[in-house]
């Protein structure tokens, strides 16, 4: 069964997490398709699929992504991007993306995707952005009609192994008044540092345009350092391997004593948000240095030390997950209560690429929703 059809509860309580207001910061458009939509779109273009039926296809994506390697994990996107090459398919996927978020209680989301991967049918970069925005707008209208308020902004992603980052940065700035709120780089991380895209980051900085960078997932501290100082990232996409810069000196029954390295101290002191994605981090092997179970994830260490941790699904299809499911898993693993879950949402509010006044209003929405729970 798809995770979007499930109800999730706070550990040891009858509080339904799905009903709580939530924020989604790290959520890929081409990683959130419904299996039934892939089947329909693939049939229309004659694309052979690796499994039959919605359950079979969903299982194939989840099992294939559970590879222990980011490179292998990313290969599953060859299918999803293949069915997202027309204005109609892009709009449909974006519309359903928003509807699924709203149904899960998300009140603000940022959807990241790479326009350069959707040009095979002859569309221009501007045309694909416009098609996705049309779908987002329709999804927001659908949510409102269903009694759910949601707001969604686009994060335009450049592929870090390619050479179109400046072009995508210019595209993002060009559409900043038409739904685009930020810029990202993604793809195979190891060997492709943010410094390779310095021209794009310089351009974005000159135009006061916010940036998040995938870093600290398939590569370690040098990648994070490059994201911060070459990319001027205001958030770290995943960033989980920042924990490599934290030394656990000793532990007793009540406390853990640690020393922060200069990079982790910098990230903590400046409240740079970590876009953590627990299930995805397990699938890609991002936390292999600490273990292979959710309870081994350094999420709790980072949280207890005061880092601005946020909870994200990364790719809902590949991990068969939702924000609610990720929060439920963390609650079960670390004993988090309602206050902890609210903290994660308020951390995410503070890290959104919204104007300050909008963030303050959004924080009120979160606090009111959790108070009523």
Automatic annotation (TrEMBL):
State one molecular function term (GO): hydrolase activity
Q: What is the lineage of its organism?
A: Bacteria, Bacillati, Actinomycetota, Actinomycetes, Micrococcales
Q: Which family does it belong to?
A: Belongs to the metallo-dependent hydrolases superfamily. Adenosine and AMP deaminases family.
Does Cytoplasm count among this protein's keywords? Answer: no
Enzyme class, top EC level, equals hydrolase
**EC numbers, comma separated:** 3.5.4.4
This chain belongs to which protein, by name? adenosine deaminase
Needed cofactors: Zn(2+)
Going by the UniProt record, its keywords in alphabetical order are: Hydrolase, Metal-binding, Zinc
